[in-house]
Each structure stands twice: as C-alpha cells, then as structure tokens.
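Sample intake sheet
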Amino acid sequence: MRKLCAVMVSILTLALVATALYIVETTSTTAYHIAYLLLALLNTVILYIMFATKEREVHHDYRALEQIAFKDALTSLLNRRAVDNFIDKIIARCERDGSKFAILYLDMDNFKAINDTLGHDVGDSVLVGVAKRLRNLVRGNDVVGRVGGDEFIIILDEINESSLAFITAERVIQSFKKPLNINGHRVSVSFSIGISIYPDNGVYRLSLFKAADIAMYQAKESGKNGYKFYTSELDDRVKKSRSVNLALERALTEEQFVLMYQPRINFNNSALHEAEALIRWNRPKEGLVAPSEFIPHAEKSHLILSIGAWVINEVCRQCRIFCDRNQPTQISINISLIQLKDPEFVVMLKQAIDTHGIDAQLIELEMSESYLIQEAEQVIPILHKLRALGVKLAIDEFGKGYSSMGYMKRLPVDTIKIDRSLINETLINQKDKELVAAITALGHVMNMSVVAEGVEIDKHLEMSRMLHIDAAQGFYLTEPLEADQLHDFYKAMSAKIS
C-alpha cells in the first residue's frame, strides 16, 4: 500500500509539474483549473498515506502491547490475565452447549531448591524447559499458562469425562520423570497437581481455581509428585490442615512453644548429665499439645524449618545457662529429614552455637533410622558437615526398621537409640532379647554409645543394665521436666544407680 501511494504521488507530481510548464507557455484558465485539481488530489493522497502509515504503526503498537499484556515474558505461555479471559469465554460457551472442561493446577515441588543450589539463571531456564515440555503434552485446543513463579495451569477444553484429566495428569507425572538438561545440568522436576472439573466443582472461574488449588494442596501434603481431584471431603480436610498451619504460624510469633526435657541416665558414668529436648505447644484454651498432634502438619507445610530453628536456638540458650551454673548438660534434639536437607541448616546450627558460645559437643542431633538409611546417599555428606562442627549424632528408633550394615559403617554417628518397641519385647521374647544384645555389641564394636528408649517399668531398667546398654530414658525414670528441674533429678537419681 505504501509503495502504491508513493507511485501515485510521483505520477501526480509529474503531472503537476507538466501542467505548470504548460501554464507558463499558454496562460490558459483551463490549465489553471487542472493544476488546482491535481494539487488537491496530491494533497489528498499525501494525507491518506499519512493516516494509513499512522494506522499501521498504531496497530503494530497494539499488537506489541497485547503480547505484553497476555503473554508470559519468560515462557511465552499465556499469563494469568489471559488464562482468566480464556476461562471466562469457555464458561460462557459451556453454559450454552452443556459441555465440560477441566483445570489442572500444577505447582513445582522443588523449585526453591533449584534456585538455591543452581542459581536463578538456571531456574529461569528450567521454567522455559518446563513450558516447552508441557506444550507438547496437550491437544491442539487445550491451553497451557503460567500463573505464578513456579505455578502452571493446563485447561482441557471440551472433555466428555474426567478420565481425560486423569490421563493428562498422569502424562505430566510420567513425562517429568526424565530430567531436564539445562546448561549441562540434569535437573529433576516434579509437580503436585490439583484438578477441578466444570461444572461439577464450580460454575465460576474463582470457584474452579479454588477447587483446583485445594486439590493441589492435598497432593502436596500426600507426598508430592502426584495429583488429586477436588472433592468436598478434600475441602474439609484441607481447611482443617490450613487452620492448624495458621495457628502454628501464630504460635511461633506469639511464643506459644515450650521445651520440656526427658533426662537420660548413664549406667557407666552417673555424673554425665544428658537429656532429650521435647517440644510442646501451649495452645490457648487447650493447654499443652503433644508433638505428635502438630509436628506432622509442620513437616507437610515446611513450617518445621522455622519451628526447628526455634528449638535449636532455645536449646543452645539453655545449654549456656547450664554451663554458667557449672552444670554442663548434653541435650539431644530431634531433627526431621526436611531440616536435614535444608541448604541453610548447617549454617543456622553453627550460628546458634556461636551466638550462645557453647561447646558444640553439648548438642546431639537425633535422626530416625528409617530416613537415614533410605536417604543415606544424600544425607551422609550432610552428616559429615555436622560432625565437622563438633556436634554429636544419634540414630533414633533403631531396630524399628531395616538397617543396612553397609550404610551403618558409613554413617558418622555416635549413638544408637534402641526403639521402645524392641525394649518392651525383650521381656516377653527371647529372640528380641538376643537381638538387643547383638545391637548393643555391634554399637560398641563401632564405638557407639547405646541407649534404651521407652524404659517404663523397673524390669526395663534391669534388662537394659543386664544387656550392657550404656544409658536409658523413659517414664519409669521420670516424666519430661522443665529445665530448672533437671539437676535436682540427676542428684536424686545418682544415688540410686551408683
């Protein structure tokens, strides 16, 4: 169009020049009229060209703004605004023709760890790689969008039954079992996926999003790398879980947590003072809540990192008080796998020890046998870093699961704590009694101290001493005590066992 207009302008200009020359020669009135008309036509064409050019520029700018407004800048997927518009249009159509569609809400399980360990540039490349793979998993009329930092959405249009949503979710899970290759890094990615169906789970966009979000939350709580369909029962369960999590967050800020201490007596050295720190939640209107009631919620929501950091700092503070009273006491702390895998855990622990100026050997970290063995390849390097700080390490609930001798030799631990169920069985089963004796001998061969957990009657204590176990703890000795009660207990108990 622009070229055509330019040619027309050129022709008219030449005609005008020719007419002007003719006027000079003839001074004809008709020639003047022709020249006037040509000039007017030329002016019209020029104005048309200006308007046409401006219109093209405005259209181009609009398309550019549209790209910015509706496309995710990093992945080129639809952004949240475009997804909202698309869903609203689908809902309007479904209301007319009675069809269904599904929303799959995808939340990456490990994106923070990727950013922390590999950097944000690699993290961005991972998001781009995820977007490309997701596009290849859906049909031509389906839509993939990015609605948050590591949150994606798949809209399955015109589905006859929910099985297509199931198939697509399964396809996503299976597809991402193959790691992404990002700048030479093999990056493993997994998703927790929540699924809602129109109109079964809602007839408005916000209600469908909420249903998919609730289902995704439950998928994450169920172990991640999976999917859940929304149900009303699921809604009730998630509401209760979220309510507990909000209460736990409030408990942290309002200092509702307290520590009690379960003393441990040492048969070989009664002057050695040891205890296990046990957290309690002093919940308003309910009193002290046992850890079994809230720790699972804290682990699922990762609040365990904040709660665990509080416990470590509080234990270090208490150790400092004991040392200032010339009553040094080794205190054990239970550590979850989530804490152990946290990239900041070792640094946080060292900072707490340094802040309170205590000997690191006064801190013992207890870790469950089950996850130490199952995750040995990942946790062994972390355990060596902890040992380098000077803290002591213990295997908790030993004998409850299955231990590999190969891994046991590689674990840099100081103490084995025999599970209470096994201690109880020693009184009624000869084989369990022999097993505990073998575990004790094994621990001593490997230079580990052996502790009996769950000593609840006098015969448990007698059996522990007879099997040459080094130390014992349990309700027979005493209930968990406040910090200021510990050393009165040690004084009284020392006379009984010496």
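Comment: The longest strand covers residues 257-266. The CA atoms of residues 367 and 395 lie 5 Å apart.
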